[in-house]
Amino acid sequence: MNKIKVLFLCVANSCRSQMAEGLLRHYYGDKFEAYSAGSKATFVHSLAIEVMKEIGIDVSNHRSKLVSKFFGQSFDYVITLCGDSSKSICPMFIGEVKRETLHWNFPDPAEAEGSLEEKLAVFRQVRDEIKKKIDNFVIEITSK
Q1: 46-54 vs 16-28: helix crossing angle, rounded to 10
Q2: Residue 95: pLDDT band by 50, 70, 90 thresholds?
Q3: At residue 32, does pLDDT exceed 90?
Q4: Residues of the chain with pLDDT > 70: what percent?
Q5: Within 10 A of 124 (CB to CB), how many other CB atoms are there?
Q6: Residue 121, exposed/middle/buried by CB under 10 A (0-12, 13-18, 19+)?
Q7: What would the mean pLDDT of 25-36 be, rounded to a whole number?
Q8: Count of Cβ atoms closer than 10 Å to residue 25 Cβ
Q9: Which of 22, 29, 61, 132 has minimal CB crowding within 10 Å?
Q10: What is the distance between the alpha carbons of residues 40 and 3, in angstroms, rounded to a whole number?
């Protein structure tokens, strides 16, 4: 059976899309191939690495990638994770999407302000919300 290919996109490919890629790969890697990219390549945010490590997922070897790296490839699903404030600059995938392009609205945890603990709380909340969305997504498409 061919795995379902999913590309997660956000602006900087540093937090949301990296966490989504790691979550889908870790929990559902037997059925899915997960990738991530952004409209600008930056770095994988250290707090994203930290909160993923807290749940046993190592994304420290991930690299921030431009969406253009995937031009010419096809995916079953392309999922943007940009919040409303950055939706206008959220990257678009120009390539074959076999099933559907989806938008999941998540705030960018990299914009969190406050103490380290306050920032970590935001990263954890976004991570957990992405995990719930992925769980529901997997249930929905594997039950079809």
Answers
A1: 30
A2: confident
A3: yes
A4: 96
A5: 16
A6: middle
A7: 97
A8: 18
A9: 61
A10: 27
The residue range of the domain holding 20 is: 4-142
CATH at residue 135:
3.40.50.2300
Predicted pLDDT of residue 88: 52
Catalytic residues, which ones? Answer: 10, 82, 90
CA separation for the pair 4, 14 (Å, rounded): 23
- 24, 54 Cβ separation under 8 angstroms: no
Which pLDDT value is given to residue 85? 57
CA distances from residue 66 to 34, 40, 43 in whole angstroms, order as listed: 15, 6, 11
User: Which residue type, as a one-letter code, is found at position 12?
Assistant: A
Total tally of structural domains belonging to the chain: 1
- Find the Cα–Cα–Cα–Cα dihedral 33, 36, 18, 29, rounded to 10°: 0
Element containing residue 10 per DSSP (H, E): strand 4-10
DSSP state for residue 107 in the 8-state scheme: -
Q: At what angle do helices 116-142 and 16-28 cross, to 10 degrees?
A: 50
Contacts of 53 (CB under 8 A, 6+ apart): 60
Query: Rounded to whole angstroms, how far apart are CA atoms 120 and 80?
Result: 22
